[in-house]
Amino acid sequence: MASPKLLQPYQASTAHREVYSEDLILEVADELPPDGIDTTVKKLEKRDFSPDVSGNYVDGQLVWTVTATATGSFLLNPTLIVDTENGGYSFTTAEAKVGEEGTLTPLEMSGFVDTVVSVQFLSYEAVGINVIFLYFYATPVRLSGTWSISGNLVSIDSMNPYTSTTLNSVSITVDDIDASLDGNYDDGQIRWTVAATVSSGEFTLSPTLTADGYAFESVDAVVDTQTENLSLETSADNSDVIGTTFSGTTDTVTVVKFIFYATPFTKYGTWSVEGFITGVFPSATITQGYTELSTITIQNVVNLIAGLDGSYDGSQIQWKVTVTVPAGCFTLIPSLTASGYTVVSASVIYNQETFAAVVTTENDIFGTTFDGSATDETVVTFIFYADPDTEYDTWSAHGTVAGTIDESETPTEPVISGEYDPEAETAAWSIELPGNIGPWESIEVTISKDFNNGGEFDFVSADVYLNGRLYSSAEITLTTDSITVLISEAIGVDDILSIDFVGDTYSGYQWTSLVHITMTVPDERLMKRAVVEWDLSLTVVNEAAVPSSSESASGSESESESTSESASEESSSDVEASATSKDLSSQTSSTITITEPVFTASIFSLDNDDSNNDDGNDDGNDDGNDDGNDDGNDDGNDDGNDDGNDDDYTDRGINWNLAIPGSMGPWSYVEITATKNGTDNDGFSYTGALVYIDGELTDSAECGNFHY
Hints:
Elements: E1 17-20, E2 25-28, E3 41-42, E4 52-58, E5 61-71, E6 74-82, E7 89-98, E8 105-107, E9 116-118, E10 121-123, E11 129-140, E12 145-157, E13 163-175, E14 178-186, E15 189-198, E16 201-210, E17 214-223, E18 226-230, E19 233-234, E20 241-243, E21 246-250, E22 254-264, E23 269-280, E24 288-300, E25 305-312, E26 317-325, E27 328-337, E28 341-350, E29 353-357, E30 360-362, E31 365-367, E32 370-374, E33 378-388, E34 398-406, E35 415-421, E36 426-434, E37 442-454, E38 457-466, E39 469-470, E40 475-478, E41 482-487, E42 496-505, E43 510-520, E44 531-541, E45 569-577, E46 580-588, E47 590-593, E48 598-605, H1 610-644, E49 652-659, E50 692-693, E51 696-697
Parallel strand pairs: 13-24
Antiparallel strand pairs: 1-2, 2-3, 4-5, 5-11, 6-9, 6-10, 6-12, 7-8, 7-11, 12-13, 14-15, 15-22, 16-20, 16-21, 16-23, 17-18, 17-22, 19-20, 23-24, 25-26, 26-33, 27-31, 27-32, 27-34, 28-29, 28-33, 30-31, 35-36, 36-42, 37-41, 37-43, 38-39, 38-42, 40-41, 43-44, 44-47, 45-46, 48-49, 50-51
């Protein structure tokens, strides 16, 4: 056998050098053995250099793929030519990789003219025969149609010093999808509906929408009378962009509807949506489809009651716009068209106060903006002052009043709610923390199971949202038995922080979560009372599994516990899922912890009736102070009340309260001395003192020595 013909490789690697022949590759060691060349021979099949081109259409973008093979080190130089029919397309980026598992490398594109693009991709490190993938991305002028590409590929590698091959021409065809987008607002919920018509055969439809001022909650696909709940897919680049996918088969022309449910961030406003829908139809002549969906806008507005009046005092015109707004936060924007005068200033009358307003003018249109809030229906008056043009003696104005009004009732305490999902067999809870309970330095929420009430379950997930959007600043610690959420930064007064958590149930028919909330506030806010706490609980019930003997206990019940006697707030909601209605209620209570004495005072009403006044003082002071100061209290109460109920005595009393926390101790004893202000000691008399420990009257305190 004749010796193989040796060819110079493009570049040898540093570890070894490869010597190529037409049929063989010899691996030659850098340090040859004494007896000559290494006899190890690795035989490879001779490569078949047949580059291929393919095309695909992905979310409105053309992707052209050039596939080629190369042996050892290589240089590939493809040149692609754009087909200008159907409006053509424009290349945007290019990248390449070696092998299916290779890393994508961006490539720099160069073009001779707008319709020709070329790149170079080389590798000195490649070994053996490899498949190389080169990707070219382009944006079509039109969103549907047929696009083609052609070109050639120049290749240099260790096996072939130079090869030029004409690439096969390939086309991409995308048809329009008959699709539409509509929306409506009803009772606090937005519904966007994408309707697409498909022909007989298999199909896959993928709508994508972009939110504006609301958060997507769920999506259903409706075909004929069948409804299927789909999963929402959120874009990794933009949380406002969501999509879904639905596949099916039909024997006739069918309309597929996608209903996206969303919750707006405000009760009143204007909301819009935009997006597109793509489709794949394997059994159709044209297998791909794409349609840009027209932007849709919906709104929920209040019909404002407004009036316009004008007057002239001989030198200046006054236009008066009155607007009646409902309770809530509002923004009003009156806009008028001027004729024969120039507006020079404006003011707003609101809650019997007058505010200066900034006038905006564009051509003959003038206006202003005013923000406010009202607890009841309120009238807001705008007054525009104008200087008339001398050649006119009659002036007119007309215009509109626009604005936004938020009547939503933001909770003033933490609120918990929940429901049971019979399909997933999970219990879900949600805690709302309104920003108006702060500001806070930090807030920690600890969630645990109530092992003594109901069946067994494991916590499986927990997420935190700020105004409906995922809040990444929260620190979440999750175990099967407990969840801890730590927020170390304040939120806005009008913001709402939501903690959603889910438990996987596996026994029983009701499950209870216990919640403890600790809020640390700035010292200056509560006079050194730096910690505020709440305890919440909520029981979620699977009503379908409630035993008949326990019907009286069906529904979801919640209880709250508090270490103080402060008033609690109760909230309730009706949740409807499938055909089951669940009544959920929750209670919250707050406990304020103090670390040093707190002194407060209040004025209360007294009864002018002698008998009532006597009873009140007898009961209140005699019982509490008999042992400590019989004489002093008897005299003081007799004189003070007898004189005080004589003619025209002011029927008010003063109650001082001094709270002393036990954390200041331990102590042997505490002595409190109260005296009148020496410079202003007229007009009242001390009548008695009572001492309570944790809200209960105690007789272990000695009270006396009243200085009237």
